[in-house]
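Hey, can you fold this one?
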Amino acid sequence: MSVWLVALDVFLDISFIYNGCYDFVCCIAILRFPRHGLAQLHTSVFTNTKLDAFVKRMLAYWILTYGFPRVISGLYRNPLHDASCALTYFIEGATYHVELRHFKSANEKATFVAYASYMLGVVALVRACYQWVPIVG
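Sure. Predicted structure:
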C-alpha cells in the first residue's frame, strides 16, 4: 500500500511541476508570441468579450503568479506549499466558472478548465492534509 502512496505522491509532484512550467511557457507565449498556439489556448477561452493587448498581458501575469506555487509545491514537500497550490487551483477554477456562468464571457472550454482546476485543488488539499496528519503504524 505504501508503494502506491509514494508513487502517487511522486506523480503529483511531477504533475504540479509540469503544470507550473506549462503556466510559465503560456505566460511567455502570451507576452512574446501572441499568435502562437500556446498563447491562443488561454485567450481563446474568452469569446464574448474583447481582449485588447493590455488585458492579454494581465492574463499572462496572472498565469505566471499561479505557476510559482505549483512548481514550488512539486519541488518541496510541505503542507503549506500544497495548500497554497490548492488555493491557486480553486481560484483558477472559480474564475473560469464565474466568467462562464455569470458574465457569459467564456466558452464551454472554461467548463473543463474550471472542473479540472477544482479537482486538482482538492487533490492538492488532500495531500496537504495528509502531510499534517501523523502516520501511525
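The chain has a mean pLDDT of 92. Let me know if you want another pass with a different chain boundary.
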